[in-house]
Amino acid sequence: MSGHVVALSGGVGGAKLAQGLDLALAADELTIIVNTGDDFRHLGLYISPDIDSVVYALSGRADAVRGWGRREETWTFMAALKELGGADWFRLGDGDLAMHVERSWRMAQGEPLSAVTARFCQALGITAQVLPMSDDAVRTRVLSSEGWLDFQDYFVARQCQPAVREVAFAGAAQAAAQPAALAALARTDLRAIVICPSNPFVSVEPILAVPGMHAAIEAARAPVVAVTPIIGGKAVKGPAAKMMAELGLPVSGAAIAQRYANLIDVFISDERDPLPAAVAGVRIQGAQTLMRSSDDRVALARAVLAAADAVRDA
Ligand code: FO1
């Protein structure tokens, strides 16, 4: 079956499935709408961590162990910065630095984030359309046991240690959804919308908080499939499980399925977990969701597409 696929993605886990979809689909069949709630300015540079992760994954440059940044990275800049007494809590590798410098000066000239991202994709041979959810600033903030924290202060500087009480998306109400993202969701040849196995609270929900995005997904003429970021009561990477516990939710795929219930047609749980109890209007099925290799990514992408096609054919 052919048709266009739209994926919603955060960083690490989302980028892996985005890469699987990219490998499983033809060149012009994939649009990825990426969370920009983690973006911030650091050392005068504009950093867009989830866009970076998706671009590195799709161009085969991602570091598999750290989950962010480039593989075969060197750290001369960070060592020199440390010698000068500079801020070394957020690590920018030597190769990665090029991305942030090039992006920052272009944005300072007035180029929007979407245009810079498209430029990078073209330069790195990425054929999928990679779109920031908005070109306007939306900033994820965490109300924690230590008060309100900007996202990277919570995530990197504080290593997700403070307990989370609430998550907010500053600027979301005033942000304009990326026009190309709305256009992709409105396509008549749309085959599937995929919610990648990203953290629901800080990676997927910022995208849904941009006005028009939720409604565009609801109105889309294609099945919506979400993949669990929780396996065996744990997040594969990152603080999703810890956050769920702190927000008073059961740490399970079932709780994620419930959270997305009004938006999705299919929930893909990990095959090692017992299938979550029925959620009204949602098909629940198991698949191998842990993506260790490129083959795993493609296999999961194919399982997701097959699940969407089965809903369409039913
Ligand atoms: N994550 C870390 O845990 N420590 C870092 O020093 C760090 C640096 C970094 C630099 C560029 C970039 O694109 C991402 C970076 N990340 C780092 C990852 C990132 O902050 C988070 O993984 C995402 O925001 C969550 O999706």
Topology:
Blueprint: E1 4-9, H1 12-24, E2 30-34, E3 40-42, E4 45-47, H2 49-58, H3 76-83, H4 94-108, H5 113-123, E5 129-132, E6 139-144, E7 147-150, H6 151-157, E8 164-170, H7 179-185, E9 190-195, H8 200-209, H9 213-219, E10 224-227, E11 230-231, E12 234-235, H10 240-246, H11 253-259, E13 266-270, E14 283-287, H12 294-313
Parallel strand pairs: 1-2, 1-9, 2-5, 9-10, 10-13, 13-14
Antiparallel strand pairs: 3-4, 6-7, 6-8, 11-12
Helix pairs in contact: 1-2, 1-12, 4-5
Bound molecules: ligand FO1.
Task: Kindly summarize this structure in a few lines.
The protein has about 325 residues and is α/β, with parallel strands linked by helices. It has helices at about 10-25, 50-60, 75-85, 95-110, 115-125, 150-155, 180-185, 200-210, 215-220, 240-245, 255-260, 295-314, and strands spanning about 5-10, 30-35, 40, 45, 130, 140-145, 145-150, 165-170, 190-195, 225, 230, 235, 265-270, 285. The chain is about 40% helix and about 20% strand.
Description:
- A hairpin with a 2-residue loop joins strand 3 (40-42) and strand 4 (45-47).
- This protein starts with a strand and ends with a helix.
- It has a 7-stranded parallel β-sheet with strand order 5-2-1-9-10-13-14, with helices on both faces. It has a 3-stranded antiparallel β-sheet with strand order 7-6-8. Strands 3-4 form a two-stranded antiparallel sheet.
- By secondary structure, it is α/β, with parallel strands linked by helices.
- It has 12 helices and 14 strands.
- It has one domain (4-313): Rossmann fold.
- Helix 1 packs parallel to helix 2 (49-58).
- The protein has helices at 12-24, 49-58, 76-83, 94-108, 113-123, 151-157, 179-185, 200-209, 213-219, 240-246, 253-259, 294-313; strands at residues 4-9, 30-34, 40-42, 45-47, 129-132, 139-144, 147-150, 164-170, 190-195, 224-227, 230-231, 234-235, 266-270, 283-287.
- The chain is globular.
- Bound molecules: ligand FO1.
- The site of ligand FO1 has 16 residues, from helix 2 and helix 6.
